[in-house]
Amino acid sequence: MKVEVCSICNDKISPIVNSSASRELQKILESLPILKKKELHQIKILSSKFANKKICIDCYIQKVVYLKAITKIETINEIEKKLK
Q: Could you tell me if residue 60 is inside a domain?
């Protein structure tokens, strides 16, 4: 049996996460509001890697939350510039 390793952290990918839970997690994370096309594209790439067991669940969640936070900060900065 081949042991799959995360391409980001090099940890072993847990086989505990079943495909239905995986799809549900992807739907939840992708449904969070996002305004930037670049970040949305990166999230779709991460989702694909997660679905194909190229990255572990911890790295997937961490990267998606990071991209969402970056987008939120950039949006706040743009609004502040427009208000000045």
A: yes
Record the pTM.
0.73
Q: State the residue range of the domain holding 55.
A: 19-83
Structure tokens at 2: 């081949």
Q: What is the per-residue pLDDT across 28-73, written as a single tens digit (0 to 9) for each?
A: 766 666 667 788 788 888 888 888 888 888 898 899 889 888 888 8
Asked if residue 46 belongs to a domain, the reply is yes
Q: What is the dihedral of CA 7, 8, 12, 14, to 10 degrees?
A: -100
Does residue 6 form part of some domain? no
φ/ψ of residue 37, rounded to 5: -70, -35
- Domain count of the fold of the chain: 1
How far apart are the C-alpha atoms of 40 and 22, rounded to whole Å? 18
**Residue 78 contacts by C-beta under 8 Å, 6 or more apart in sequence?**
none
